[in-house]
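Inputs:
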Amino acid sequence: MNIHQSTIPVLIVIAPLLTALILPLLNLWKRSLVYPLTLAALAFSFATSVVAAREVLTNGPLEYFMGGWEPPWGIAFRIDHLSALMLVLLGFITLLVGIYSKQSILKEVPKKEAPFYSVYLLLVTGLTGLVSTADMFNLYVFLEITSLTSYALISIGGGTAVVSAFRYVILGTVGAAFYLLSVGYLYAVTGSLNMADLALILPELYESNVVLVGFAFFVIGISIKMALFPMHAWLPGAYSNAPSAVSALIAATTTKVAVYVLVRVMFFVFEPRFSIDTIPVTTLLSWMGAIAMILGSVMAIAQSDLKRMLAYSSVAQIGYIVLGVGLANTMGFTGGILHVVNHAFMKGCLFLVAGAIVYRTGVREIRGLRHLSVRMPWTAATFVVCALAMIGIPPTGGFFSKLYLILGAIAADRWIFVAVILVSSVLGLTYLVNVIRYMYFPPAEGEAVPARVTPGAIVRDEVPITMLAPMIVLAVGIILLGLFNGEIVSRFIDPSIPAGLAT
Amino acid sequence: MLDFAIGNFNNVTYVVLMMIGFYAMTGKRNLVKKLVGMNIFQWSIILFIVSLSTKRGATIPIILGSHDHGEAPVINAFQYVNPLPQVLMLTAIVVGLATTGVALALLLQIYKRYGTLEEDELLEKIQTSG
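Outputs:
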């Protein structure tokens, strides 16, 4: 595969960064331009990602050397198939949530648009930078940009959101500090920070205790960042108390990007044989993923608040992804990465739906969703599509990623994980269908009906088009992901399967 | 045991500092103390990575003899301290500063809203106010 240089990788990262710096000034001059400029930057970043993906597919990975310094001395940006897939995904989700956020933020946190969009764009900078950098320390910086902006965005909701954000600050910083420590250990023995260079030097040092400790710190640090059970304590509060647009954005992107970092370092900086055999970290990860799937789903069933339920469901879904990656075979890896894409769509869309419901009705309780199918038919229909995908009904995307995961578990001869995936799906069915039941069906005989909900008074009252359109696009996207999953797998995921994984 | 501690005093120091920070983060009920613990935790790691660059008998990484008579000086890497970990940690310090800033801003918001920074009282107030 020939690698060629290009300025595209850096354009994707720098467009939102520069716009984020301009926005506060622009706000002083002409406030009405803030939102259009934000969208322009997001659209530019997305369009460039698509161009980058096309380049990668036709000509192989792209590279850019910062300041013209060649690696291993300088900082390199590198986009291969896996990064390209993540970049297009991030560009698409951030653009849609950006469009959606206008009305939602105007209502939930008025008069804070300019700082909100500024931080929003910085978050996009961090996310896109994380997936395109090829330098371990640069990755730490982007990881912290992502985390810092997430803290700020979560706390913008005020009240309990601030307390949740503080909890996230403490845990997130511990995660980042562990990551930094692992970079320090790896640097101490290799003297290099470039990923490709590290991959060349490290195999001789696999027996070194320093490398083992560094790797262990890396796995723990990044597990905190992606809220893998039992390090998920920050997630439910942060997701459920943040403003709706922020929940959707963060749920769809930050934890997924952490998974990307895990895969990148575990399989590309280290070789799979190290992560699988030298210390059996993949086995450990798949067990933790399995526990997360069951406990996350059980906790989700216990929730009465819609956003909190979705947050616990995220813990379970991270479990699916980590289980797939931890199976350490081709099928499991494919399923894990495909589930990253699917889950970004599904959970992003579900949080947008929850936000739309809060926007129109102010209801967060699942019990309060009676007659939503009459009042907000499109929103309710979108929820059903997402719910079907979460459960894994064909032809939605969720079915195919679960299918790959199950095939991976069978290929690895771990039948217990097949059982766990199926049980967790049934648990998912329980909590999602419960919501649909409240949305679509009349109360059962003898069930208490809240007094303020009376069937006669319900009029159709849908959210504005800028909020509705992104949700519907995502819902259609979920079905398209299912129909065209073969394309994604053969074009993006197959070329990025690390050498050395079992088939 | 003592030999080990003296021979690895940078490692020992960072682990001790890190544990102090970790204790403050988990054991203390006051949010400001948690934040201080978080800072100690971060700085311990920064201290450790800076300590990686030290070298006995070496000097600062500025080329010796470069102001002599036009001849290119001979550069021996072993004469100099490795500048890279220090530069990296400068960046990490900036990141740590930003984290502390954000955390302090959050604490200010919490105090304005709930009038306390004790975790127990805070949870109580959140539960009563809904």
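Remarks. The mean pLDDT of chain B is 86. Chain B touches chain A through 30 residues (CB under 8 Å).
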